[in-house]
Every structure is written in C-alpha cells, then in structure tokens.
Specification:
The structure is a single chain. By secondary structure, the protein is of the alpha+beta class. The protein contains 20 helices and ten strands. It has helices at residues 9-12, 52-58, 103-114, 146-151, 160-179, 227-232, 237-253, 259-267, 271-274, 285-298, 309-317, 327-331, 349-362, 365-370, 373-383, 387-400, 406-418, 422-435, 440-452, 456-479, and strands at 35-39, 42-44, 48-49, 78-83, 89-94, 121-122, 124-130, 133-139, 193-195, 201-204. The strands form three sheets. Strands 3-7-8-5-4 form a five-stranded mixed β-sheet, sandwiched between helices. A three-stranded mixed β-sheet has the order 6-10-9, with helices on one face. The protein has a two-stranded antiparallel ribbon with strand order 1-2. The longest helix is centred in the C-terminal third of the chain and has 24 residues, at 456-479. It starts with 8 loop residues before the first helix and ends with a helix.
Length: 480
C-alpha cells in the first residue's frame, strides 16, 4: 500500500503503514480453529507460526517507536506493537538471542499456551522460531496496564468498583488456566494485567510461558517474591496465589508496597491506612475488609494455607456492585464508536465522493443528539455544504471531544477534499482507518485523496483494497 510513502503522514500516524506480506502458516502442527472469544467483535485468530519477515514488517523493522514494554528499551525481552497485512494490531514479544536455545522446546511451549482461549486472557495467537530468533505474538491491548492506571494515572484513579472487577477478571483467568492444566503463571503483577479496547482487564498470556535460559520467574524485587521460591527457586500453583495477593494489595493501596509491610498494617487493624487515599473514602469498608482478608490468606507463608483459584473467583464474584456499567466508563477512557456500514461500490474517485457525500450526510442522526455542541454545528454545516465551517467545528470536536468518531474524521476528510486540501484529507481518512480498521469508507477516502495528490497508482491500489474489503463484508453479511 503506497499511501504511506509521503513524509507528511508521520505527523498524523506515527505507526506508518508498511506493505505487508501474506502470513505464512506452517502446516506441520494441527491448527487451532478460530474461537468465539472476541476482542471488539472479531474472533481470535487460530494459533499459527509466523515468519520472521512478517513480524519484521508488522513492527516496522522492530522500530523503537513501536516498543510498548513498560521498561522501554531497557526491558530484557522487548514487546512491540505491530500491524498485520489485514490491519489487525498485535503484540510481539522478542526474546534476546539464545533465550530459548532449543527451538523444539520453545515451539512446544508456545503451542501449549496457544491452545488456551478465554475472554479474560490477552490470547497468544502465534510464535516465530527462525534461526536464533524467538518471538511470541499475542492480541494487542490498547489501553495500557493496571500499573499505569494505578500508579501513574493522569486524569483519574481507578474507582473502587472497577478495582473489584479487575480482581474478579484476573481470578477468572487464573482459574481457567488452572482448569486447562496450565496453573503456573510467572511473575504475576500489575504490569501483566492489560486493558482491551472495551476497557476490560485481561491477563497477559506471556506469563504462562515456562522459564527460559536468561529469564527469571520473578523479575520484581525479592520483597514481593513468594517465600518458597526464595527457598527452592520453583514456581508452584500456590506461588501464583501469593502473587495474586500482591496484586490485591496494589488494588487496595494504589501503591506497590511490600507484602510484609502490608501484613503488619493488617495485623494492626490499620485498614484505613492501607487504602488508597485517592479513592477519597469512596469505597465500602465491608467490601474492603473482605478483600484485605483474602489478600492476607493469599500471602500466607505456608503455601498449603493459601486459597485456590476457585476461592478467589467465588469471593470476588459476590463483591461486584456495578455489573451493568461498562469498564471503559469506569476507567474514564474514550470508547471507539463503531463505524456505520459503507456505501455501495463506487466505480471512480468522483463517484466515490458523490456516494460518500450522500451517505455521510444521512448517517449519525442519533449520535448528533448525544454529541457535543461542536459536533452538532459541524453536522449542520456539513449538511448545508458549508465545508469550511464544518472543518472548524469538527476540529473543535476532535481537539476536545471525549469520543473517538471515525464518522467525524471521514466527514472532515471529505470537507478538506472539497476545499482542495488533499494532504489534510488523507490524514483524516487514515485516522478514520486507525479508529475502525475494517471500514472500507476510510480506504475509499484515502483513494480519492491520493488521486488528488496525483499518486494514481497508490490511489488505484487503495481503491482495489477497499472494494475487496467491502466485498468480504457483504459476503459475510449474506452468510449470516
């Protein structure tokens, strides 16, 4: 796809699109079929082996701009975000050279974890074992980690009900893994809990992989390490429960405090001092006491005295007080709105513009009632073909709005086109695609803008890509 060749795209979309090759799926292991578990409505990929060239292209040659490891480039095994040829975002964990010297062991371990599929996991969808290269590929979670939301939040801390939901969802993930014969989880902590596009917490699948030669089962300070691991260096199912107890302390206190210090406060009945002051008292003392008691049980010195995963689920299930409130609302983060259906098969750039003008003018009437005043003014100006005013209003909405709308980006893109500003139009069309990757309208808009920029080959490629995507969507609609 040639639209990313122009340098001005970097201003709008730092994760520049690279032309992607087809994924090469190896046929020697049996493939795991797609699972109904979904992230944003699309089924999880079946587990497969990726080629190194595919992952290199997806991560822009493992660009430092794509690193999402909490420790950045200092992390021992870097994690990158990447984008496949079908525009699906992925997380790629790249191990250091010879971290897994035996390729067969690495592949077997990856396939074992790859069989797991659950809505509470950031599922493993593939791996790469090419020469000395060892990489894991998982679903990408766009809304940061629990550590970020608890320890380094900017706008608001996590409310109490959401903290209880995090505890339940992670307990459910651990219980599922235990039931499926994978009870060991290495270095469970707040950095392993990720938030998907709906704001729901998920447990990273990377911690389910067994230890490698250069890795450690516990990378945190020894103060947070299960006592039996310090004695014999072995991770047991009970060790995972201990680590879950440290996560409960994080949720209670909003800080990463040593378990020994927290236990002293608990024994001294100083629960109020343990609680996160940023909650400003907005929590139930009865519920907090239940969580504190469970954390204390998880942190018992003797492993046999700790609860099991089913106990964790049962305890937290009864504490859920806002089951009908969506997670992204409680987190205070914007939700990507779904893009509407697309117009019918435009045959040329000009026909595309006419179709889009008619289609976009009609869409979003219900949303206009709920949007900010700037969005409403932009919609009215757009309907009245006052495109300069529409650009100004949509710009206000985009700059200060709390909702990410592909429709707004598409409308402003069309306004820019009709005001003879194809560069800006292309940027907005790409933003619409970022918000809703499988929306053909965004690709049609890019095709028109590219044609205006005299990038005719790229425009034709983009138009073909959009038509192919729309045809697939229509076939899928008929099938359902």
């Amino acid at each position: 796809m040639g639209c990313c060749e122009s340098s001005f795209l970097a201003e709008m979309h730092p994760e520049k699109e690279q032309q992607q090759s087809q994924l090469q799926t190896q046929t020697h292991p049996p493939s795991i079929g797609p699972d109904p578990v979904s992230a944003g409505g699309a089924g999880v990929y079946s587990f497969s082996e990726f080629s190194f060239s595919d992952l290199k292209a997806a991560t822009n040659n493992f660009s430092s701009d794509f690193i999402i490891s909490e420790s950045g480039e200092k992390a021992p095994n870097l994690v990158y975000k990447g984008r496949l040829h079908n525009r699906r975002w992925i997380a790629v964990k790249k191990f250091t050279k010879l971290a897994w010297p035996d390729p067969k062991q690495f592949a077997e371990e990856a396939w074992g974890v790859g069989k797991l599929r659950h809505r509470r996991l950031a599922n493993l969808i593939g791996y790469c074992c090419d020469g000395d290269e060892r990489l894991l590929v998982a679903e990408y979670m766009p809304n940061d980690t629990l550590a970020k939301h608890l320890f380094h939040w900017e706008n608001q801390t996590i409310e109490w009900a959401m903290r209880l939901r995090v505890a339940l969802y992670i307990a459910e993930a651990l219980d599922y893994c235990s039931t499926e014969g994978r009870p060991l989880y290495h270095d469970l902590n707040a950095y392993r809990v990720l938030f998907d596009e709906d704001g729901d917490p998920r447990l990273s699948c990377f911690g389910l992989m067994k230890n490698s030669r250069d890795g450690k089962s516990y990378s945190t300070n020894l103060a947070y390490t299960p006592p039996e691991y310090l004695r014999n260096g072995r991770v047991t199912p009970e060790s995972v429960i201990y680590s879950f107890g440290t996560v409960l302390l994080d949720l209670l206190s909003g800080k990463h405090i040593p378990p020994s210090h927290a236990l002293e406060m608990i024994r001294g009945k100083n629960i109020i001092l343990l609680m996160d002051s940023h909650l400003e008292g907005k929590f139930s003392m009865e519920e907090a006491t239940v969580v504190v008691d469970l954390a204390s049980q998880c942190l018992q010195y003797e492993p046999r005295e700790r609860p099991n995963t089913k106990d964790l689920v049962a305890t937290h299930a009864q504490l859920q007080t806002k089951p009908d409130v969506l997670s992204y609302v409680m987190l205070g983060i914007p939700k990507h709105e779904e893009a509407p259906s697309t117009p019918q098969r435009p045959l040329s750039a000009m026909e595309t513009m006419k179709e889009l003008m008619s289609y976009l003018s009609k869409s979003g009437t219900q949303q206009m009632r709920d949007m900010l005043e700037a969005r409403k003014r932009g919609d009215y100006a757009f309907r009245d073909k006052d495109f300069k005013t529409a650009i100004d209003c949509y710009s206000q909405f985009i700059d200060v709005g709390t909702m990410v709308s592909p429709t707004v980006f598409a409308r402003r893109s069309l306004c820019y086109l009709l005001c003879d500003q194809p560069d800006a139009a292309l940027r907005d069309a790409m933003q619409a695609q970022c918000v809703y990757p499988d929306w053909p309208t965004a690709l049609y808009m890019q095709s028109v803008a590219l044609a205006k920029l005299d990038m005719h080959k790229d425009a034709a490629d983009m138009l073909n890509e959009a038509a192919t995507l729309e045809e697939k969507r229509q076939r899928g609609g008929r099938a359902s």
